[in-house]
């Protein structure tokens, strides 16, 4: 079974071909109760994609959009709630596992995944065949020259202030899905291209998949993004794909269950 706990929405895949979609509850205890009610029967194992950094033991280290979850033993509490073994990883890491196993990154030895949703998450995978490591990065909090916007993480100038749905919604005073100005999305594409280029070049990646609600819903983002990437990536070619999976973190949470513990760095 797979669960994706994002900053705004939670999705549950019981493994029967259906997906239960819920609003994520900012209250940790209520979220556990909601998941207990949403899961039919007793699963044999559960992979969980979570919108924040977790430790190898499955404790929540930091979640900018779910502050009430920080410091909580998420894996332990989910195992008690669902009466099943649980693996937990960052949602970007799960998105990466999903796209590499089933989507646009199949066969890539040096690849990354970036999610554009409530926030901006990123992960990379290095290695061939069964010998690999996937790890979460903080590429969403890379500092952008000339950006004086304060981020929820405490830094000034983070890429997430220019791309994250929550940060932009607060600044614009309306949900990002209501913004249809072509000029806005052209500017968004330029900021994204710079962030993707930095991420890919710093890690020596050959391919990057871009997923999340914003990437999936805004088709007008892609032509200016590809043009901006072509202008920037003149030294090293990097293939940038639109994520092939509708919900890569959820698919990756299922892959996580069978991923060797040493294959994921938290």
Automatic annotation (TrEMBL):
<dbReference type="Pfam" id="PF00480">
    <property type="entry name" value="ROK"/>
</dbReference>
<dbReference type="InterPro" id="IPR043129">
    <property type="entry name" value="ATPase_NBD"/>
</dbReference>
<protein>
    <submittedName>
        <fullName>ROK family protein</fullName>
    </submittedName>
</protein>
<dbReference type="InterPro" id="IPR000600">
    <property type="entry name" value="ROK"/>
</dbReference>
<comment type="similarity">
    <text>Belongs to the ROK (NagC/XylR) family.</text>
</comment>
